[in-house]
């Protein structure tokens, strides 16, 4: 298979100039121009010919060009109209590209309906699966990852670059300042692997922060029934809304005084939310669900 070369900074700049546009900070447009890291992102996804891949923020199509020859379908979501037109002209003839315009999010807690429909309609073939492979725009990274994990379990693997601070929150251990709902939910539902640390110099325009490249493999048998995952996430988020309080007070806001009273002899309510391990959060959830 002939694999396309990774777009260079000069080529990206030329494509943008041809389209009469410039990188827009408000869309988080920082283009990965390190060819080795781009190929590493593609390789870590272990793509199969029957895979359906969701890409958020394809930009000038540098990553998209690497994905299209390897998979059955790429669903690419681009918010910038000028870039959508550029992508349609350059990559539309490939035949296995579904290009969606607009914001990938309908709201903070919901993907846009067109993306949901495309993921449902584009079925993997021949042992393939649905995957996210993307250089995620920083401002949408958290809600995209969380919505996919909580509401769209058909997406079985997520490989992406993300702001280092955010990636470290996904990997955080109990007790630290970065440990919170994102850490607990991601680690509950996935096996998490750090693929690479990505310096700011690997992007153009250069961001002010480093990034992490992560791979999340969704667990086949998570800690709870799939229908319960949203309730678990809601409990964790509600409790951490009061993370400076001890569990007794924080849980009263989340589940009410009556439930907390029932838990008093089964859990140390003097602890703080960030001190509980992921497994302890699973146990706490089970206790709150018991009659």
Structure description:
- The structure is a single chain.
- With about 290 residues, the chain is of the alpha/beta class.
- It has two domains: about 210 residues, Vaccinia Virus protein VP39 (Rossmann fold, 3-Layer(aba) Sandwich); about 60 residues, Helicase, Ruva Protein, domain 3 (Orthogonal Bundle), CATH 1.10.8.
- The protein is built from twelve helices and eleven strands.
- The strands form three sheets. The chain has a seven-stranded mixed beta sheet, with helices on both faces. Strands 1-10 form a two-stranded antiparallel sheet.
- Helix 4 links the parallel strand 3 and strand 4.
- The radius of gyration is 21 Å and the shape is elongated.
- The relative contact order is 0.11.
- The model has no long low-confidence stretch (mean pLDDT about 95).
Mean pLDDT: 93
Can you count the helices? 12
Overall spatial form: elongated
Q: Give the strand order, joined by hyphens, for the main sheet.
A: 4-3-2-7-8-11-9
| Structural class by secondary-structure content | alpha/beta
Number of strands: 11
CATH topology of the largest domain: Rossmann fold
Proportion in helices? 25-40%
Order of helices and strands: HEHEHEHEEEHEHEHHEEEHHHH
């Amino acid at each position: 298979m002939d694999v396309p070369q990774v777009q260079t900074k000069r080529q990206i700049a030329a494509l943008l100039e041809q389209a009469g546009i410039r990188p827009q900070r408000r869309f988080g447009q920082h283009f990965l121009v390190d060819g080795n890291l781009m190929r590493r992102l593609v390789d870590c996804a272990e793509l199969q010919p029957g895979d359906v891949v969701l890409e958020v923020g394809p930009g000038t199509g540098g990553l998209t060009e690497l994905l299209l020859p390897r998979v059955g379908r790429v669903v690419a979501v681009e918010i910038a109209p000028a870039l959508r037109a550029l992508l349609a002209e350059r990559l539309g003839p490939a035949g296995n590209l579904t290009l969606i315009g607009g914001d990938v999010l309908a709201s903070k807690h919901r993907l846009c309906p067109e993306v949901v429909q495309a993921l449902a309609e584009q079925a993997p073939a021949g042992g393939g699966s649905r995957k996210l492979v993307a250089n995620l725009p920083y401002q949408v990274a958290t809600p995209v990852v969380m919505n996919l994990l909580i509401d769209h379990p058909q997406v079985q693997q997520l490989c992406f670059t993300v702001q280092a601070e955010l990636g470290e929150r996904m990997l955080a251990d109990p007790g630290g300042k970065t440990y919170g709902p994102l850490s607990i939910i991601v680690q509950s539902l996935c096996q998490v692997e750090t693929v690479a640390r990505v310096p700011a110099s690997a992007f153009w325009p250069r961001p002010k922060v480093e990034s992490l490249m992560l791979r999340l493999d969704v667990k086949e048998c998570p800690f709870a029934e799939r229908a319960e995952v949203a309730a678990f996430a809601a409990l964790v988020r509600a409790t951490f809304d009061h993370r400076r309080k001890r569990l007794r007070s924080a849980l009263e806001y989340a589940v009410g005084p009556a439930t907390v009273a029932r838990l008093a002899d089964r859990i140390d309510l003097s602890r703080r939310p960030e001190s509980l391990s992921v497994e302890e959060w699973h146990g706490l959830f089970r206790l709150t669900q018991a009659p």
